[in-house]
## 1
Amino acid sequence: MKTLNTLLNSELSLYLQTWNFHWNVEGPHFAPLHELFARQYGELAALIDELAERIRALGARAETRVAAEVSGAAAAPEMLVSLAQAHEELSRAMRQSAIPEFEKAGDPGTVDLLTRAVQLHDKAAWMLRASTR
Ligand SMILES: [Fe+2]
């Protein structure tokens, strides 16, 4: 269950970072970015809940050990890039490592959850990148 608990904690870090940026973002695009970040941390919260409950359904404990230090002092373009990179990293980790691992283990339920997570992260990264232009 190490793989899913590691992903759970990466998702929690990204959730906290997104929420922090929702509060701290400044500049001429404040309103749409404040809203975009709110939508994205809401989607992450739902995914995190599903992931933790999947871990429980598989008979293990959901472990949280989040250390997310976010200053919130970054300028809006840096916030967008930093969040996009975090989404891309999670998507890549799922595609290249976690999904193949659970496919091999014959666990389509977890593969389905992670496949939907990849879609969420790819879409979020696209929206963040598109907002930097
Ligand atoms: Fe808010």
## 2
Amino acid sequence: MVDIELKEVTRESWPEVMNLALKLEQGGLVAPNFYRVREFKAEPEFVQLAIFNGEEVVGFAMYGRDPDDGKYWIFRLMIDVDHQRQGFGKAALVKLIELMSKIPGCDEIYVGYRPENFVAHALHLSLGFQRTGQMLQGEYIAMLDLRSGNK
Ligand SMILES: CC(C)(COP(=O)(O)OP(=O)(O)OC[C@H]1O[C@@H](n2cnc3c(N)ncnc32)[C@H](O)[C@@H]1OP(=O)(O)O)[C@@H](O)C(=O)NCCC(=O)NCCS
């Protein structure tokens, strides 16, 4: 597996995070980072991570406990258009799961993605997520149960 590091977004790395781009056809798959991190620590209750390959920021992820439902969500996982299909997305998701499984009380990880986002669907299923059958705001919801040997 490729070697990546997840590091909390800092004042130094956030301009790089803001410059990460998606393919045109992926533009509607997730909200642009601009809306998420246009202000440093715009959402301090969630953990915002820059995905590094060596010195270079290649992606962005954000997770945390949603105060509305009390569940732990991966709100965001994206890899820059020029760095996709090199294993970074999968490696980042593996590390996110590792990180989140250490949070006391986090027994389930939730994620949402658009029905047409077959790459996200296959990626999450390959790491043990299962669809809950729920849809929220037009997105399929999938959950990883950390109690069933994934922790
Ligand atoms: C989903 C995303 C993070 C995957 O990142 P990535 O670095 O390209 O993914 P990887 O290289 O690790 O590939 C993961 C798997 O998806 C497959 N894959 C990736 N892009 C693909 C594509 N365009 N078409 C078909 N398969 C694709 C890979 O072959 C790999 O499959 P494998 O595990 O069977 O080998 C990236 O496509 C992205 O940023 N998409 C837009 C944002 C998004 O949809 N985020 C998820 C919503 S939560």
